[in-house]
Amino acid sequence: MLRLTELKLPLDHDPAAMLPAIAARLGVAESAVVRFAVAKRGNDARRKNAIQLVYAVDVTLSDADEADVLARLAGDSHVRPTPDTTYRFPVKAPEGWHAGEGERPVVIGAGPCGLLAGLILAQMGLKPIIVERGKVVRERTKDTWALWRKSVLTPESNVQFGEGGAGTFSDGKLYSRIKDPRHLGRKVLVEFVKAGAPDDILTEAHPHIGTFRLVTMVMSMRETIEQLGGEYRFGTRVDDFAVETDAAGERRLAGLHLSNGEFLPARRVIMAVGHSARDTFEVLYARGVHIEAKPFAIGVRIEHPQSLIDQARYGACAKHPVLGPAAYALAHQASNGRAVYSFCMCPGGRVVAAASEEGRVVTNGMSQYSRAEFNANSGLVVDITPERDFPGHPLAGIALQRHWEERAFVAGGSNYQAPGQKVGDFLARRPSSEFGSIVPSYQPGVHLTALEECLPDFVTDALREALPVFGRQMVGYDHPDVVMTGVETRTSSPVRITRGKDLQSLNTRGLYPAGEGAGYAGGILSAAVDGIRVAEALAADLLAG
Q: Which of 27, 29, 66, 297 has its C-alpha lying 20 to 30 A from 368's C-alpha?
């Protein structure tokens, strides 16, 4: 079978046009094509008056024809043998395997990374224990809505903490730019479909699920893990780590002190805590686990009418059912040396309250599968680095995040409303006093003010330079009534829990840092893939004796 990529056809092409296009591209007769199937579909909208659909297609020819095509098109990178994306477990527990005390693998965190790590360990027969500080996803959803509707924050159950992790209240994007030679991302998508995700995530170039579907999927995957012998412990925070040092001076994890007073013996633990487990990072640092500061970004959420984005991206083809609501990606290098870029763009969604600590305001974006709400929103953020912005301590980035989140809480009225400002006022350096044509979606509400109150000067300077540039690239992007809401600080983890080639902590055996919180992922798919990788590494070490 051959994988043919970058096959382009007009937006409104007849389905019957696919076969002759494949045959022409491969230089064979149509009768030589035994069968074909779409592997991926995206679009090329660079020319709004001639938008094309872009396909990757798996094509079956006769053996002789396939050999001839591969020889004839040997220099064509878009014609290759179809890759084998079948997932194969590198190891599995023997029949009847039982773990001794402390040998049963533990996963801390039930977000995308921990969920896939737990699933893989369970499928290998290793009966993992998953420890999650938050609640089951249905209860967690109620707590999250309490913040959005009543300004009541539950620190252990919110957008950041609880079953499903931060990805549950997001756009549910399932694509990534990570290198994935083993096609582990495909394993993730296949498991999501088994759990109830729509089949189209297997073929869309930029698949997404949305919050409501993620909730039911997470519940289904939990049931699978439990049926395979896995165990969940919800409402249980890891308060400390027992670390032993042997005669040779090697540090090794011995167990976990839990918030319910229990000591859980554990010699192999996957740390999948997400990017907001600040208290856990502090405990790890105090226990001598190697942690280093890493870059991240801060800024705002910016909201436009989705119709404006559709028109800017697709022109006369806006609202075409095949295209759906439009997304965008923008970047600008500002004169102060800062990169300004869009982040986690959510078509047809809303800005949400994402705080996990009292007295602080954090924003994020989410969409449902339909992406049918009125506004589009995106993070609009500016890069920061340890060397330039928070030098001197591995946890200094956390302190910086907290500082600006506290400032945002005060600027918003000290009631979990978020500070906001219209773009026209922001560019004119005056506080906003009333909304224009665009109504922000953030709940429990937006308090108009000046965003200088809750952002560093270098961030506001870079944003003021970038907005007119983006307005020239997308007409209406810098419209005076566009609303910006602060602050977006949780773009990625401010720390990296450093690990070696064996995926264990650089200086603490048995500890497997993983996912976004450990600094090794940047979204649902990449975190889930990393969860698979560390689960495989842990299993290989455990079963090797």
A: 297
